Each structure stands twice: as C-alpha cells, then as structure tokens.
TrEMBL record:
Example GO biological process: animal organ development
Organism annotation: Poecilia reticulata (Guppy)
Residue intervals of the WDR11 TPR domain: 953-1142
Name of the protein in question: WD repeat-containing protein 11
UniProt KW keywords: Cell projection, Cytoplasm, Cytoplasmic vesicle, Cytoskeleton, Golgi apparatus, Nucleus, Phosphoprotein, Repeat, WD repeat
Pfam family, one: Beta-prop_WDR11_2nd
Domain WDR11 second beta-propeller positions: 486-825
Bilayer-spanning residue ranges: none
GO cellular component: axoneme; cytoplasmic vesicle; Golgi apparatus; nucleus
InterPro entries to which the protein is assigned, alphabetical: Beta-prop_WDR11_1st, Beta-prop_WDR11_2nd, TPR_WDR11, WD40/YVTN_repeat-like_dom_sf, WD40_repeat_dom_sf, WD40_rpt, WDR11
Length: 1218
C-alpha cells in the first residue's frame, strides 16, 4: 500500500521581488543570450526573448553585488562545448562560479570578507577560458582559475580600487579606477602579476579645474553654458596630484575603454561624458547635459558603431551616435565647427516614474547585436527595450542641425539597393552605417536610405511587491479535480492587492486590487475563489475598519462578505473555513466570534458576550456527508421504484433509475445538503472546547481541561486522528484521538506561530513556523524531519508558510521572495530541464553539449539535400526556405544566433576579405601575378573596431583624422610634441614643421625643435644625407632612443627598416600600426606576417588573433592550414569551401592535400554528431581516405546511396550572389 499520494510534480522555484541596494551593480547580459541579475542573495537568470525567468540560483549567504557571464571567445567542440557559466560575487567577499543549467556551483572562492568590487572573465581566451579577475577591497586584484578555484596571483595597489576596465584591443592593457584617479597597467598577463605599480594619473573633477581657456576675442559672443563646460574640460588628466582646493571629490561614476576605437576611453560624470584619447591623455569629446537635463547614471559604449547607450536618473535610455566629421565643413561659422567628437542624440525611450522605492538601477545591452537594452528597476521589474530602424526622412526639427543617419550600403557583404523595403534590424551595424571620417567621400546618396531609430518595449518582467506577505495555496489536487486543477498560490500584500501565481510556470496568473490596507490572511473556499481579510490601522479607541472580501478568480468579482459590518470594531484575528467549505468562523481580538454560512453568505450565529476569548481554533476533518448521501440515495431509489410499475421490464427499470440518479446527483450540488461539521478552540486558560455545527444549529460539546505542561495555546492543527497543539513557549503537544494518548515535546524554539498538515490521504507530515524559522515534523513517528533557522542556514526570516503539494512547502520571507522548497527545506536551485516554461526558449547553451553542436552543424550547411530547411525532424516540411547568398553570410548570422564570439569575429573578417580578394581577382585577371597583395577600392570597409585588420587606406584616413583632432585639442607643449611626432610618422611633414616652430623661446627644447624643423624641410633624397641620417638613426636606436630613431627612418622613407627595429625591440603593435599607415602592400604584408608568426609563438599564444591578421593579408591557404592544425575542423572545412566558392583558392596538386584532409576531418566530426548524410557528402570530396570513410559509413547497406554522387555533380544548394 502506498503511504500517501503525490501531487502533480511541481518544480522547486523562487518567486523574487524587489532588489536590495547592494544588488544595484549585479546584472550582466551574456554572449549566450541570457540576462543574470542579483536579487538579495539569489541570482535570477532571464531569457530576454520570451521575458521569463528560467533559473534562480541560491547558495550565497550575503547580497549578490556582481554577476558576470563567461565569454564565448573560444572555439567550441565536444571537449569545450557551449555552456552556461556564470560568476557571482557577494557582499561577504565570496565568489561562486555556477553551472547554470544544472543549478550547481562549480567552485567557491573566498579571499577577504569585504564585498567584491569588480569581476571580469579574461576575454583573450586562447590560453585558457577559465581565468577570472576580481577586485577584493580595499586594494587587491586577484586572478583566479574559475574552474578549480585556485589563486594564480594577487597584487595590491596604493589606493582603494573601485573598478577596472580591460583594453578590448590589447589584453595586456587595463585601467583601474581608484578613489584618487586612474592607474594604467600595461603589463597585465595571466602568468604573473603586473611587475610595476602602473602609471598613475589624477583626474581633476571637470567643474573644479581652473578654466584653461584662451582669452576670448572681444567680438566673439559669450559662450553658452555647454560651451563653457567644454572650455573647462580642456585639461583633465594630470600626472601630478592636483592641489587640495582643485579636487572636490572624484565623482567619476565609471571608466571604460571604447570598444569601437583603439586607445580611446570614456569617463562618466553625472553631468557629462568625456572621451579621452589615451595617446595624448586628453579630452577629445564631451557629451554634456544642459542645466535642466536629467543626470547620467551609467553609459555603455558599443563596439559595432561609435555609439553610446546612456542611462539617466529617470530611467530613460538614450542612444547617442558619433557625428561624421566630414559633415563638419558645412558649418559657416568657423568657431562653431571646432573639431570635437560629437555624439548626437538619436533615440530615447520613455522614462519611468521615480519614487522613494522605485529607481532605475542598471541597464545592460545585448553584446552580440547591440540593439537591445534591458533596464533593471529597484522594484524588481526588468524592462526590455529593442531598437528598431525604419526608413524615412525626419520631419521633426530641421533646424536641430542633425545630419541624417543612413543605413549601411551592404548587408553581410551583399550590396543593398535604394529600394530596400525594410532595414535589417538584426544588429546595430546592420541598422546604421559607419561614421564617416574626414577626407572620405560619402557614398552616393542614391544608394543610401535615411534611417529613423526608435525604442520599442518588447518585454516586461515584474517581481513581487515589498513584503510582508500572507500566502495560501489553493485546495489540494484530488482524483475528482485532476482534469481542471491549477496549482494557484494567493499572496496578499501590504498595499491591499492579492497576487495569484501559477506555480507550474511560476508566472503571475492574476493581480487583483482587493483591499485598501494590508492583507492579513487568506482562505480558499473553492479551486477558483477565496476569502481575504484586511484591517486598517487602529484609531485612538483601538478600533479598526475590517474588510472581509469574497473574490471569484475567473471573473474577478469581489464583494464584501460581511455586508455593511466592519466599521469601528475590534480587528479580525483570523478566519477559518470548514473542510467541506460550508462554514466560516471569524475570530476577533476582543469580541466574540461569528459563524457564517459560506454558500448563502448568511450569519448563522454571533456568540454571546460571555463567550470565552479564543486563542486558537481549527475545524475537524470529520463530517457526516457520506452517511447523509447514502440516506438520500436510499430514499430516492425507493421513490423511483414506486413510480415504475412492476409490470415493466427490469432493464427499463435499471436505466430509468440510473437516469434519475444522474438527475438527482446534479441537483444535489445546487440545493446542497448541510452536513454536520465540528470545530475545536482553546481559551486563554488552555481549556479545549468542542462545538458542532449542522445547518443553522450550533451545539456546545465536551470540554477538555488544560494540559499542565503547556503554556498559552497559539495554534491547533487536526488531520485524521491526530490533533496537534502549539504554544507560545515552543512546546508541541501531539494527541492521538483513537488511542487517547497525548505526548508533549519541547522544541525550545520559542513561539509556535503556525502549524499546518500536509495534503494527501494518510500524509501525516506537519509544517511548523516559528519566529526564527520553520520545521517539518512527522506526526506518526513524532519526530522532526527537517529544520531551517534564520542566521544558521538561511539569511532571511520567514513571514508565512503553507504546503504547496504533499511533498513541497512554500515559504514567504522578508527578503521579498516566495520560495517553493522540497520537504528538506534546503534552498536548492533547480535543473533547467525539469521546468515547465510557457514559451520555448532559444538558447543552444542549455542543450547537452553534443546536441548543441549537432544543431549547429545541421543549421550550417545542408548541401546534401539541395534545399535548406530549418526543420530538424527531417519530416516533409512545407515551406522549404531556399537560401541564396554566400556561405559566410550564413555562418555570420549563425554565430550570432549561438552567441559564439570567436566564430563571429572570424567570419566577419573572413567574409569581408574573401569578397575583397575575389573582386580583386576578377579585376586583375588580365595583369598576372602579384594579385595576392593588391587591395581594390571598396565601397564598404571593415568597421574601425577591427583596428589593425582594416584596409590600409581606410586605416590611414582614420589615423590622420585622429591626429587632426588631437592637434585642435592640444593644450600644452607635451601635447604639441606628441602631435608633431605622429604627423612625422604619418608623413605629414609640412604640418609637423608648423607645430615644431610653435615652440616658445623660453622652452629648453626650443633649439632642438627649431633644428628638427630645419632638418625636416631640407631633407632631400641625395645619397650621402640619406646614409648619414640612417647611421644616426641606428645609433640612436642602439642607445635606447627608439622613438627618435624610428622618426628619422620614416623621414627618409625607410619605414620598412623602422618596422623591423620596432619588432626587434618588442614594439609589435607600434610596428603593425606603422606598417599600416606608411608601407606599400608588399612590404606591409611582410611586417604583418612576421607579427602573425610572433602571435603564434607559445609564449604569446594568441593564435586566433594571428589568424585574423593573416585573413586581412589574404593568406587564405595559410589560414586553412592553421585552422586545420589547431583542430578547428568544422571552421577549416567551411572556410576552405568558401575560398573555393569565391575563387580565391584553387584545387591543384599543392592544395589538394590540405583540402582533402580538412574535408575528411569534417566528415568524421559530422559522423560523430550523427549527421550521416552530411558526413557522406564531405567524405565524397576527400579523395582516397574519404572513400574508406564512405565504406565505413554505409557498411551493410548495399553500397553508396544515390544521394552522394561524384565530386563534379554535387549539387550545392547555395547560389552565390555576385
């Protein structure tokens, strides 16, 4: 016999509510496509596409202050699969690395006991993808292995560290924001701590620094407020500590590198954002807010375009896009066109209503597409905004002077026409085109469309309101109601509303505004209706207004159950509904109880004045409904027999009787019989009274004298033959009514607040609530099953309890959460795959490793079927999508779908250069040879965020533009000198001479600069002068003056030698930069190839970067070889396929070996993933070794199927759109 039945399986889960102030910074949107957010000591994981919570992680004991998803910047295969890894740090200094799918902790890290200030996974993941850098207050940075929890190194600094930011272009650079200024570290490495203390610079607060303004000419109009701010910010970063009166308080809110441009950094102040150029350490752009504007709280720079997402104090998110500098010339007033990086406001979303308890905390943007933002609000709401683009001219304000935004010229390499109906708003870079730079011809307006951007609210997640709560689970599941049962939980809140949650999905089912004051208690009267009561605050007589409402869920109808009663009376203490939901007892504090009939809504009895004061009350589960029903059935059958005469056949008789019985049983529910029910209650002396109710008669029964060992009774529970009493001193008294035994047990936990029996026949578990926690008891064995206590194993107090199913409890706690827990009451995260989600979630990282890779291979290329289908079940799919376009395009969008950072980087660069070189090849078919090095002019560039990987011509223009800006902004001799140096390297000798001649006569380097200017102007290409200069330069370099020597070499057009020297002395980045701006393609490519070799060396180990460099040089064969040798088999095969398709690689004797090897390995990989047709196709193109694999694939199936033909006849369902 089964001891008791188990309800529908409900997953353990946590319903979360408002956030704590410490959770403010704890939010992150990962490459995997999910948002993680700290809520008190737990972490929510949300899916932004469907706006649902899919996991709550519980293990921290203190408030969570930081969460970070691991980066996906590595190659994924079975040994390093797509996974969901999250690191979280709390206010007690503990860091936990989670496996989010199973809800378990990988490892736990503890160093100090102060809150973690900042956390970040290392983004350069060639060496290891488990490295986690953390700031432990006050001044330590520690590098951890996030997989094992071991400490790799620890370093302390002189000041308190607030946060840090990594340079997205160079993994060895990072900046720390400290309490006094910024510390730049240039030798960051995972193998050893930075050796130096870093270069320290101080920030003078922009308002406090003395105005370094040139005296304005008298005629010029007085500058406006914003202009004044700009003038003030001329000098910001100083190397010496500013004087005491100059530094007010370092109110810099945030520092981060710009991922869209190298060596630029952003500093956020409440009223302005400063853009610094780090080569000059000087402001080159300011976004200031007018006096009436709303201050900033946070800004996120984008990588795909030079744009900023800004969050303001009123919860408004604005998008600002950098203005094209080539549009500057139109300004007539030269003073107005002062060169600045200007960020124009292009779009903003609605603000929220900010109150004392409701403020915007943080925003995060989607790192893959950068076109979605999520805003976290302190009341637990998450607002999901999406940026949408639509074509059309702006009619709003022509005088605002904003130049129009244009859509990109091409999408994934395929050019777009002007008749494009809608803009591909897949990501930010497919919505708006690049910011133009000076000296670059804008594309003809005929092929561009103007774009308007707007924010659209696409999702909203809301949490529970502020505690306290009163919770009650709806009546339990039975065999009768199993067809329409919903596990609903009603939670009454302090503002008078009742929230009803469906616990299968954990989503809010209904929110009903029922009362005008705090809800004190709820009782369900059926599966779809409940009674709730609320009491207002007492007046000076101690009387209150009582509200007792009856609520019907399907219709939402509420009515006052006690009619006009309720004003100016003592407060209601509790309401109790009988087991058959027939009667209701209302207990008051200083007034006799009332007995109501729920079905008719009538008052049956108001007890007399001398009625004892009730301290605890409970209805008995026993009743006489069954015997009553039996009597009725017997009477009816007798009636039925009399009406049917004996002459008629018995068959008719039985059928008529059954019909009558049906009719009777239907009418029975309408004119219900009143069954007899009992309740017991205790008075202040502990005496137990027994009262019977039947219809409208109330009878007083036996009285049992008090038990001497018990104090004042606080609560009673009764189920079957067991009655349990709990008192204010923490004693539990178990009565066995059948055996007439009683047994008292002291729990020593103080006042017993509530006790409740679990549902289910024969289930004798009991849930007990104390002021400091809860316990589960087994009343059969009279022993404790599990216990939780505030301060010992949990850090929240329990406000209310109930049973959710026969084996799970639901607890409301003072951290604003409602938790559904197993009977053991251990706060455990649940496995994601056990959940019932209302909407399906697209997140490959949730799948088993193998399943995710199979899905990816399946979606990639399906040349074996001739058509492309998204349907993985292989059934006959009616809308087969014919895919047209390049392979790269598909790979590009697929890596976005999977959130695969390394894939995305590789295919973005690869598709761009494959196309470039394919076009070049078509152009240079006539001129044989050297075609590998020529780069044709192209209408579309790689975005500047790829830095060194861009085309030389574009890169050069960008650098010139940047120096021009630096020159306008320079404010000291140091700056001027740096500008002159840059101009010399860029070959702009005339401008450099002008700057050198500006040196004032009292400057110590006046003489030196003047001579340099003479030298630069008189250099002729005569032999002797050249050899002299070369000799001097080499001597300088040998004696440690590297920069000066390189300048001299550049003057005499020996930039290639200069690059070689730079590389010898380890200045690899500088050499690559110089090669890009000064050398012709052939020489430049040599320098970059040497750099790529250096990147591949074991001590540097940045192979993925090296591959990208080789791609930009068009060394496609080498890239294929490297991918293959690194065992990136799918990437290698697909890349070689793309090369063959676009004609930049030929299948000849030399290359066949690589091609066949790559295809063979890819076929093996597909076979291991179970995609046999795909494996057969690639094997058929892999030469002799492939034939063996084919035989293995189709053993015992009578040879090769017809689907796989010879190499020439393979029908690939991809048409190139060139």
């Amino acid at each position: 016999m089964i001891p008791y039945t188990v309800n529908i399986k409900l997953a353990a889960r946590t319903l979360t509510g408002t956030l704590n102030l410490q959770n403010k910074t704890a939010v992150d949107w990962g490459w995997q496509g999910l948002i993680a957010q700290g809520c008190h000591s737990s972490i929510l994981v949300m899916d932004p596409k469907t706006a649902q919570t899919i996991q709550v992680l519980e293990r921290h004991k203190a408030n969570v202050v930081k969460v970070k998803w691991s980066r996906e910047n590595y190659y994924h295969n079975l040994s390093s699969p797509y996974c969901l890894r999250l690191a979280s740090g709390d206010a007690s200094g503990k860091i936990i690395v989670w496996d989010v799918v199973s809800g378990t902790a990988h490892c736990e890290i503890q160093e100090h006991s102060k809150p973690i200030q900042d956390l970040e996974w290392l983004w350069n993941q060639d060496a290891s993808r488990d490295l986690l850098l953390a700031v432990h207050p006050p001044n330590y940075i520690v590098l951890w292995n996030g997989d094992t929890g071991t400490k790799l190194w620890k370093k302390s600094y002189a000041e308190n560290i607030l946060s840090f930011s990594f340079d997205p272009f160079d993994p060895s650079n990072m900046a720390l924001l400290t309490s006094e200024g910024i510390v730049f570290i240039t030798d960051f490495s995972h193998s050893k701590p930075p050796s130096s203390a870093g270069k320290k610079v101080y920030i003078a607060s922009p308002h406090a620094s003395p105005a370094h303004t040139k005296p304005a000419p008298a005629a010029a109009p007085a500058p406006t407020g914003a202009k004044k701010a700009l003038n003030k910010v001329k000098v910001l970063i100083t190397n010496e500590k500013p004087t005491a009166e100059a530094v007010t308080l370092n109110d810099c809110l945030q520092l981060s590198y710009l991922p869209s441009k190298r060596n630029h950094m952003l500093l956020l102040y409440p009223r302005e954002i400063l853009i610094l150029d780090l080569e000059l350490s000087q402001t080159v752009g300011v976004v200031a807010i007018e006096r009436s504007g709303v201050p900033f709280t946070q800004v996120i720079p984008c990588a795909q375009r030079d744009a900023l997402y800004c969050l303001h104090e009123n919860g408004c998110i604005t998008l600002r896009v950098c203005r094209s500098t080539s549009a500057q010339e139109e300004a007539a007033d030269p003073e107005q066109s002062v060169q600045e990086l200007v960020y124009d406001l292009r779009s903003q979303c609605d603000a929220i209503r900010v109150t004392k308890t409701v403020r915007p905390y943080r925003m995060v943007i989607c790192p893959v597409n950068e076109n979605k933002a999520a805003l976290m609000v302190s009341d637990g709401r998450v607002m999901l905004w999406e940026l949408k683009a639509h074509t059309g001219r702006s009619v709003a304000n022509p005088s605002s002077g904003l130049s129009p935004l244009y859509s990109p010229v091409s999408f994934c390499g395929a050019p777009l026409g002007p008749n494009q109906k809608r803009i591909q708003d897949l990501s930010l870079n497919s919505m708006i085109s690049q910011t133009l730079i000076a000296g670059e011809a804008p594309p003809p307006s005929s092929i561009q469309q103007e774009v308007q951007l707007k924010f659209l609210l696409t999702g909203l997640l809301s949490g529970l309101p502020l505690p306290p709560f009163a919770i009650r689970m709806c009546p339990p599941l039975t065999t009768k109601n199993i067809s329409h049962y919903q596990p609903l939980l009603a939670a009454g809140t302090s503002n008078g509303s009742v929230l009803v949650y469906n616990l299968t999905s954990g989503l809010l089912h209904k929110e009903l505004s029922v009362h005008s004051c705090e809800v004190r208690g709820l009782e369900w009267v059926s599966l779809t209706s409940f009674l709730s009561f609320a009491t207002s605050s007492p007046n000076n007589m101690g009387l209150v207004r009582n509200e007792l409402q009856h609520v019907d869920l399907p219709t939402g109808r509420c009515f006052a159950f006690r009619g006009e009663r309720g004003n100016d009376e003592p407060p209601i203490e509790m309401i109790k509904v009988s087991h058959l939901k027939q009667y209701l007892v209302v207990v008051f504090r200083d007034k006799p109880l009332e007995l109501w009939d729920i079905r008719t809504g009538t008052l049956l009895r108001e007890m007399a004045k001398n009625f004892p004061t009730v301290t605890a009350l409970e209805w008995s589960p026993s009743h006489n409904l069954k015997s009553l029903k039996k009597k009725q059935m017997a009477a009816r059958e007798a009636m039925a027999r009399q009406t049917v005469s004996d002459a008629e056949q018995s068959s008719v008789e039985s059928s008529v009787i059954s019909l009558l019985q049906d009719a009777e049983s239907k009418s029975e529910t309408s004119q219900a019989i009143s069954a007899r029910e009992h309740f017991v209650f205790t008075d202040t002396d502990g005496q137990v009274y027994h009262i019977t109710v039947e219809g409208n008669t109330v009878k007083d029964g036996a009285r049992i004298p008090p038990d001497g060992s018990m104090g004042s009774i606080a609560c009673i529970a009764w189920k079957g033959d067991t009655l349990v009493l709990g008192d204010v001193d923490g004693n539990l008294n178990f009565w066995d009514l059948k055996a007439r035994l009683s047994r008292g047990i002291p729990t020593h936990r103080g006042w017993v607040k509530k006790i409740r029996f679990a549902p289910g026949k024969g289930n004798q578990k009991l849930l007990v609530m104390y002021t400091d926690g809860a316990e589960v008891w087994d009343t059969k064995e009279v022993q404790m099953v599990s216990s939780m206590r505030f301060g010992r194993n949990v850090n929240y107090r329990i406000l209310d309890i109930d049973w959710c199913t026969s084996d799970k409890v639901v607890l409301a706690s003072d951290d604003g959460c409602v938790r559904v827990l197993e009977m053991a009451m251990k706060s455990a995260s649940y496995r994601m795959d056990e959940q019932d989600l209302t909407d399906p979630v697209w997140c490959p990282s949730l799948l088993l490793p193998r399943a995710a890779l199979t899905l990816k291979a399946f979606l990639l290329l399906q040349p074996w079927s001739g058509t492309f289908t998204m349907d993985i079940t292989q059934v006959d799919y009616n809308e087969k999508v014919e895919i047209k376009g390049l392979i790269q395009e598909q790979l590009n969008s697929l890596s976005k779908l999977f959130g695969d950072e390394s894939d995305l980087n590789f295919w973005t660069v690869a598709s761009h250069y494959l196309q470039l070189f394919a076009q070049a090849r078509q152009l240079s078919v006539t001129s044989e040879g050297g075609s590998e090095e020529t780069q044709p002019p192209s209408q579309n560039h790689l975005d500047i965020c790829h830095d060194i990987l861009c085309e030389s011509s574009y890169f050069q223009k960008f650098q010139l533009d940047r120096v021009h800006l630096q020159e306008v902004k320079r404010s000291s001799y140091e700056h001027t000198k740096k500008c002159a140096d840059q101009l010399l390297l860029l070959g702009q000798t005339d401008r450099a001479v002008q700057l050198l001649l500006e040196t004032s006569a009292d400057n110590p380097s006046y003489y030196c600069d003047s001579l340099k200017a003479c030298l630069v102007t008189t250099i002729t290409s005569s032999g002797p002068s050249q050899s002299t200069i070369k000799l001097v330069a080499t001597n300088m370099i040998a004696n440690g003056k590297l920069a000066e020597g390189v300048q001299l070499l550049c003057l005499i057009d020996k930039a290639a030698d200069a690059c070689r020297y730079l590389q010898t002395y380890g200045e690899w980045n500088r050499a690559a930069w110089l090669a890009k701006v000064r050398l012709n393609p052939a020489e430049g490519s040599d320098v970059l190839k040497r750099w790529a070799e250096h990147l591949c060396s074991p001590q540097v180990n940045q192979k993925s970067k090296a591959i990208l460099v080789l791609l930009s040089l068009g060394c496609f064969y080498k890239v294929g070889e490297m991918l293959h040798s690194m065992r990136y088999f799918d990437r290698a095969a697909l890349f070689i396929e793309a090369c063959l398709k676009s004609g930049v690689m030929e299948a000849n004797d030399s290359s066949n070996k690589l091609i066949e090897a790559a295809f063979l390995e890819y076929a093996r990989l597909l076979r291991s993933l179970g995609l046999r047709e795909g494996a057969a196709l690639w094997a058929s193109r892999a030469g002799s070794a492939g034939e063996q694999l084919m035989e293995e694939l189709f053993q015992g199936e009578g040879g090769v199927p017809e689907a796989v033909l010879g190499e020439d006849e393979v029908e690939v369902g991809l048409e190139s759109t060139e």
